[in-house]
Design brief:
By secondary structure, this protein is mainly alpha-helical. It has one domain. Helices cover 46% and strands 8% of the residues. The protein is built from six helices and six strands; from the N terminus they run βαββααααβαββ. A hairpin with a 5-residue loop joins strand 5 and strand 6. Helix 1 runs antiparallel to helix 5 and helix 2 crosses helix 5. The protein starts with a strand and ends in a 6-residue tail after the last strand.
Length: 155
């Protein structure tokens, strides 16, 4: 079996990250709702956490971006010698709110960055997918007591 590497163009990766979509297929949603993240892509089965401690980088991205954005307005105000109460009144809500606002996108952008730095190899594609759920081919029968009896295996 030959070894190959799955490269996704950087533009597509960033577009998928902006839309909060799977970096592997670009179709499945990363988040189920709110701050609840799916374990794997509902479309292709790709498991989002590639290794233990994977999201540490996303926390760093979130912190750097949120705090940089939080400094954009207060720093110029402070250099113009505006009242310290006004500077604090602008800075504190930004420092508190921006990490929450950027949380979801920091995880998706971290996955995109990781895919750019560490493209997926053929060995990883097989081990990182969630196998599909087994499909029952025969309906379950019921006993007189109402308990479900599994259908016998077909040969």
């Amino acid at each position: 079996m030959s070894q190959y590497t799955y490269h996704v163009p950087p533009g597509r990766l960033l577009w998928n990250a902006l839309r909060l979509r799977c970096p592997y297929c670009g179709k499945g949603k990363i988040f189920a709702h709110g701050f609840t993240m799916n374990d794997h892509c509902p479309n292709c089965g790709w498991m989002f956490e590639r290794e233990e401690g994977y999201w540490t980088g996303a926390v760093a991205v979130n912190l750097v971006v949120a705090e940089t954005l939080a400094a954009v307005l207060p720093v110029p105000l402070a250099t113009m010698q505006v009242s310290p109460w006004l500077v604090m009144g602008v800075a504190l809500p930004l420092v508190i709110a921006l990490p929450f606002v950027f949380y979801r996108h920091s995880k998706s952008f971290w996955m995109a960055l990781d895919f750019m730095i560490h493209p997926v190899s053929s060995g990883e594609t097989n081990s990182r997918r969630v196998p599909p759920a087994p499909v029952s081919r025969a309906p379950a029968r019921s006993s007189a007591a109402g308990d479900a009896i599994p259908a016998p295996p077909r040969s």
